Structure prediction request, 209 residues.
Amino acid sequence: MNTSATPEETYRSIIAYRLHGNCYLNITSQCTLRCGFCPKYNRTWEVQSYDLRLHREPTVEEVLEAIGDPTEFKEIVFCGLGEPTVRLEALLGIARALKAQGARVRVNTDGLANLREGRDVTPELAEVVDSLSISMNAQNAEVYNQHTKPRLRGAFPAMLEFARLAHERGMEVTLTAINGLEGVDIDACREIAESLGVGFRRRELDVVG
Prediction:
């Protein structure tokens, strides 16, 4: 990050930060989970040299301005150190504007939007989101709860149901789990993803971004 940047330039750089040819959108620090492996719960907000601590949540207009021309990127990805679907209406507004400009949109999510909202939001997401990367994190509820400490009951089955519905709506869905977390069976996680007809990606512990 440019240390000579103005506060406004710094703010723009952390709400729309660049990595791997993509533009990542950091729209909230709120989350439904309290994952023991999350950097922010280990006293750091840094991802690939970006300090992603938000002192306020950006508006739709601020995010779009910070992105610039979305067609310069392979994908626009909603992914900060919070759960982007917590700000569902803002996410949908940003994604709608991006799709109108020809961008490809991905959301990295905990998959708990339906549980949190009390309704199925996948039809709304499917209108403006191309793909979802869903943090599965474990092969069963016991191990999932151990590592993610969800604020809502029934989170593990709700996440899998969200993945199933999202796939049925036509979004490209990938479940992810972290290799190296105690008790996590990567092969079992992959089998669950295959049973749902969705993709699977193994992540590595302590590799962020």
In short: Residues 155-168 form the longest helix (14 residues). DSSP finds eight helices and nine strands in the chain.
